[in-house]
Specification:
The complex is a heterodimer of chains A (about 350) and B (about 280). With about 350 residues, chain A is α+β, with helices and mostly antiparallel strands. Helices cover about 25% and strands about 35% of the residues of chain A. In chain A, the strands form four sheets. Chain A has a six-stranded mixed beta sheet with strand order 6-7-8-3-9-10, sandwiched between helices. The longest helix of chain A is centred in the middle third of the chain and has 18 residues. Chain B folds into two domains: about 45 residues; about 210 residues, MetI-like (MetI-like fold, Orthogonal Bundle), CATH 1.10.3720. Chain B contains eleven helices and no strands. Chain B is globular, with a radius of gyration of 25 Å. Classes of the chains: A alpha+beta (about 350), B mainly alpha (about 280).
Chain lengths: ~350, ~280
């Protein structure tokens, strides 16, 4: 049973008439870096608070290390939390903050001293023991919060947007550091974030949430390459959507008539019938532009705009009356990099598996 | 050009006059408020035997006399007992009320909230009469106990209001963090909540102490034989004629009150620093 660090079975949480978490079922493996990703108000923080025990579920069951939690109070759960605003105790020193959990568990004094020192070294904050939280920078407070949780060696560490308050550069550095730390200590991390890039960079697996539901669970690659619904495709990275109707089914492919005028071929990786309304998702960087059709499948379009992004050149290409596609071409840094100008007719092409068929 | 400059300096002159008038108004206002107090303090050092007599030189005699006056000593003892006990009781209950009001939702909370402010806004005399009636109906012997009960009755409200103000700023995730770190409800309260609201509690306690020391009307109605407090003592001394001794006693009470109020304000302003002050 305990192969999963955390299991949620059909967990719901209602606040009066508001459904914050709606029948969520998740299995988080031991030692995994697991992210709950979604826009604000999607229920990811509430899910975390349910695991920590700050909220009790309206329905469903939560298991930590195979143990049913029921109404177990937070202080009897083998998890620790890193809060979004750090929640360091302002009236205690850094040492007292980090030692708090060990003291509550009546760990002997000399062991507390040793473990606090180790924890502070681990987050690279040695020599700060006697400072007060308000004498530390945001990044340092963040490290203290991390040390305060990790010093207890919990089975699972819950992190609620822990990098949200840091500036971009520090955030990027802390992302890598957190990931390395997690691999070193081998503790299961459950990480709440609304930043899709952060989730993709750090996680072993991601659960994408919206409106209290889990829409898709998978590795970063699965989530990015094979989104199962429009919301996930849209939320993770940039995506073009083509809407149309299934015109013809072939053994391995489906022909979709987009905007009633352009025929697009996609892999038939899900059951659709002729006449169904469908959406095709295609990433901007998976589309290539050509002056002449490289393939009979290539679709003609007209360049509307060219945007210089630095690493990329972004083109907006009109495919039909209703649809403009975003296309990213890597900037090779040669004279040949600007190949098309607004008004040019181009041919859009992509490998068949790059386009994903989504049902509405 | 010249015309416009003339107008400009004219307004400026008028502005200066207005500013001076305003300053004068302020000075007169404060004079009205504090002149009697200053006079009182000055006359407590007057060598004349009459409290309102002419200035006959500086003396500390009246203060020396105070400390040898047994009746005043007894009154001081009563005052400290009443203030001490009523402050202790009302601080504990007031803090509990503040926590309940700030943290929990319950039926009739709004009504209870309004009731809580009643002792603050109700006229002293009305409260005094009510309390006296209550004690008489309950057949309770008037004395120190009844004074203490009465002082607790109004002090709870003041303590609760001050502590609530502190609690309103309290970040509830700090309590969650403590519970996340294995502290149960009581340990969370003792190690995190209490130290952080301590400045508010001490502020409330000092306010209660001050109010208790100064109270006259309610004490007058609920006091019995042998339970005379300082304000009651002063009142009875004044009835026999204002002596410089009264002035000296009043000055000392004034000093104590101002000190306590300042300390209370200081504590309430004290930031998230915690309990070093205690």
């Amino acid at each position: 049973m305990a192969e999963y660090a955390i299991e949620l079975r059909n967990v719901s949480k209602h606040f009066g008439p508001v459904v914050a978490v709606d029948h969520v079922t998740l299995s988080i493996r031991d030692g995994e870096f697991f992210s709950l990703l979604g826009p604000s108000g999607c229920g990811k923080t509430t899910t975390l608070r349910l695991i920590a025990g700050f909220e009790l579920p309206t329905g469903g069951e939560i298991y930590i290390g195979g143990q049913l939690q029921g109404e177990t109070p937070p202080y009897r759960r083998p998890v620790n939390t890193v809060f979004q605003n750090y929640a360091l105790f302002p009236h205690m020193t850094v040492y007292e903050n980090v030692a708090f959990g060990l003291e509550m568990r009546r760990v002997p004094k000399d062991e507390i001293q040793r473990r606090v020192r180790e924890a502070l070294e681990m987050v690279r904050l040695p020599g700060m023991e006697n400072r007060r939280p308000n004498q530390l920078s945001g990044g340092q407070q963040q490290r203290v919060a991390l040390a305060r949780a990790l010093v207890n060696r919990p089975k699972v560490l819950l992190l609620d947007e822990p990098l949200g308050a840091l500036d971009l550069k520090l955030r990027k550095a802390m992302q890598l550091e957190l990931k390395a730390l997690q691999e070193r200590v081998g503790i299961t991390f459950v990480y709440v974030t609304h930043d899709q890039e952060e989730a993709l960079t750090m996680s072993d697996r991601i659960a994408v949430m919206n409106e209290g539901r889990v829409l898709q669970v998978g590795t970063p690659e699965e989530i990015y390459e094979r989104p199962t619904c429009r919301f996930v495709a849209d939320f993770i990275g940039e995506t073009n959507f083509l809407s149309g109707r299934v015109k013809e089914r072939r053994p391995k492919e489906v022909v979709v008539l987009v905007d009633g005028s352009v025929e697009v071929l996609v892999a038939a990786d899900r059951e659709v019938g002729v006449g169904d309304e469908v959406t095709i998702a295609i990433r901007p960087e998976r589309i290539s532009l050509h002056a002449k059709p490289p393939d009979p499948r290539a679709l003609p379009g007209r360049v509307e705009e060219r945007i210089y992004v630095g690493t990329d050149i972004r083109y907006l290409v009109r495919l039909t009356e209703q649809t403009v596609l975003s296309v990213r071409q890597q900037n090779p840094g040669t004279d040949a990099m600007i190949r098309f100008s607004p008004g040019d007719t181009v041919y859009l092409h992509w490998r068949l598996p790059s386009a994903r068929l989504l049902t509405e | 050009m010249t015309g416009s400059r003339g107008v400009g300096s004219g307004t400026r002159r008028r502005g200066r006059w207005l500013a001076r008038l305003l300053a004068l108004h302020g000075v007169l206002g404060y004079l009205f408020l504090y002149a009697p107090i200053v006079v009182l303090v000055i006359y407590s050092f007057n060598a004349s035997r009459y409290a309102s007599g002419a200035w006959r030189g500086f003396t500390l005699d009246w203060y020396a006399r105070l400390f040898t006056n047994e009746a005043i000593g007894a009154a001081l003892r009563n005052t400290l007992i009443v203030a001490g006990v009523s402050t202790l009781v009302s601080t504990v209950f007031g803090t509990m009320v503040a926590l309940a009001m700030e943290r929990y939702d319950f039926r009739g909370k709004l009504a209870f909230d309004a009731l809580l402010y009643l002792p603050i806004i109700i006229p002293d005399i009305a409260m005094a009469v009510m309390l006296l009636l209550f004690f008489v109906l309950a057949r309770v012997q008037l004395g120190l106990t009844t004074i203490i009960i009465s002082h607790v009755a109004f002090n709870i409200s003041f303590v609760a209001v001050v502590v609530r103000a502190r609690l309103a700023y309290f970040d509830i995730t700090l309590e969650e963090a403590a519970q996340d770190l294995y502290a149960n409800e009581w340990q969370t309260f003792r190690r995190v909540t209490l130290p952080l609201i301590m400045p508010g509690i001490l502020g409330g306690a000092l306010l209660a102490f001050t109010l208790s020391i100064d109270d006259f009307v309610i004490t007058f109605f609920t006091a019995g034989p042998g339970s005379t407090t300082l304000p009651l003592r002063i009142y009875s001394m004044v009835k026999l004629g204002v002596t410089p001794e009264v002035n000296a006693l009043s000055s000392m009470m004034l000093l104590a009150s101002i000190g306590l109020v300042l300390l209370s304000l200081l504590l309430q302003k004290g930031g998230g620093g915690g309990i070093e002050i205690a």
